Amino acid sequence: MTYSDMDRFAIFTTMHWMPIVLVLLFMIFVSNYSKDKTFEKQRRIGTILALIPLILLILRRLVLVLKGINLTADELPFHLCNILSIVMPYFMWKVDRHWLAISYFLLGAGTIQAIISPDLLDGPRYFEYYAYFISHTVLVGLAYYIIVVYNIRPTIRDLFGAFLVANVFLIFSIIVNYFLGTNFFYSMHKPDGFSPLDYFGPWPWYLLVCELLALLLFFIAYLPVLWLNKGEQVA
Q1: Range of 64's domain?
Q2: 166, 186 contact by CB (below 8 A)
Q3: How many independent structural domains does the chain possess?
Q4: Alpha helix (H) ranges present in the chain?
Q5: What's residue 46's pLDDT?
Q6: CA 27 to CA 145: how far, in whole Å?
Q7: What angle do CA 160, 108, 105 make, to 5 degrees?
Q8: To the nearest whole percent, how much of the chain has pLDDT over 90?
């Protein structure tokens, strides 16, 4: 890879998978380290981890301002991952079983698409690249922390609760997008560049496909919980 190759992000290459693997290994290590700690220490560590995406969310916009780039409505934190970045430090500190169980599905299934098919142009030479992968992968890792460290076991009811919350976000995004001309939740058009949405048909049909896919991903995210429940019953 040449120096110029690092200017632009290339999907499904080393620059794509390497940061995901490294950050996930970090999250797994910290989570396993925290399992046997006191509740207060678990809560502090969980909150610190949850603050990472929020800090990067703020820093990214600060970097744009320092570069002299005018912030537009597209920089409002109304994408699902941005909203999760804002609320997760509070949820992780309060250790609210209801909202953490719902967040588990939004983190484990909702955010995973953002790291599998990133809406990203900048390569490893730019801050945006690191901010994107660190923040999104930490969010996914928080789902592991919730079930392994906090020992919270989401239920089917929580799964459908998360699906309802996701649809509330979707409706909210459509209203915001209509008035601001933005594309939060990609509810108005597909993201620029390659995206799995390209295979799901034109607007608005790809939204319906995404609804079904989201529900499927939520059920897949439920499998580790079933496995943990089965293991605890055997023990």
Answers
A1: 4-234
A2: no
A3: 1
A4: 14-34, 39-66, 80-94, 97-105, 112-116, 127-148, 156-180, 205-234
A5: 98
A6: 8
A7: 15
A8: 66
* Burial readout 141-161 (b: 16 or more C-beta within 10 A, e: otherwise): bbbbbbbbbbebbbeeebbeb
Question: Looking up tokens 């890792």, which residue turns up?
Answer: 141
Residue type, 135: S
pTM of the predicted protein model = 0.91
Cβ–Cβ < 8 Å for 129, 120:
yes
Residue 203, pLDDT score: 84
pLDDT digits (tens, 9 = 90+) for 36-85: 999 999 999 999 999 999 999 999 999 888 888 777 888 888 889 999 99
Cβ-Cβ contacts under 8 Å for 113 (sequence gap 6 or more): 196, 217
Can you list the residues of the chain whose pLDDT is less than 70?
1-6, 193-194, 233-235
Alpha-carbon torsion, ordered 166, 29, 128, 192, to 10 deg: -40
Rounded (10°) CA dihedral 40, 45, 49, 50 = 0
